[in-house]
Write a structure and sequence with these properties.
Blueprint: H1 3-8, H2 20-39, H3 43-46, E1 49-55, E2 58-63, H4 66-74, H5 76-85, E3 92-97, E4 110-112, H6 115-127, H7 131-141, E5 147-149
Helix pairs in contact: 6-7
Length: about 150
């Protein structure tokens, strides 16, 4: 089997993947193409499909269910027109059924300001002559016992 044939299917050795920069660049290009192609789709469909890759003249998509895949197939000419307007050479689309990953936003962790830290902030406020810093340290000290969002 030639090296080119092994590159197109299945997992690959890291050395065959190229540099991290080239992988990141490819991922960014695919993400941009995903956004551009899905932007033209009707809203319910847009959320249920993802552009996955381009192989030759074929654009590959993932759809969450067979019903969404059928709806996407019905818009094939619109998708190909959009791709051509983006100077992407494509003459067909392929669709795989795959549950799309749900991205759940995690709430920001909170931290509680301890009484000892509040005491140090008050001491810092008393030690400085800058009124703006005194006010800031005082407001921070007042947060003791309350949840403070981490950044």
């Amino acid at each position: 089997m030639s090296r080119a044939a092994t590159r197109s299917r299945g997992p690959q050795a890291l050395g065959h993947c190229g540099s991290f920069a080239s992988l990141a660049s490819r991922a960014a290009a695919l993400d941009a193409l995903d956004r551009a192609l899905r932007q033209t789709l009707p809203l319910p469909l847009r959320e249920e499909v993802r552009f996955a890759n381009q192989r030759g003249g074929r654009l590959l998509f993932l759809a969450s269910t067979p019903a969404w895949a059928t709806r996407l197939r019905l818009l094939q000419s619109q998708i190909l027109t959009t791709a051509r307007s983006l100077e992407i050479r494509a003459d067909s689309i392929g669709i795989r059924i795959s549950p799309l990953p749900k991205i759940e936003l995690q709430p920001e962790p909170t931290r509680t300001l301890t009484p000892a830290a509040a005491s140090h902030l008050r001491a810092a406020a008393a030690a400085t002559t800058d009124p703006e810093l005194q006010e800031l340290f005082g407001r921070l000290a007042a947060l003791a016992g309350q949840g403070v969002k981490q950044r």
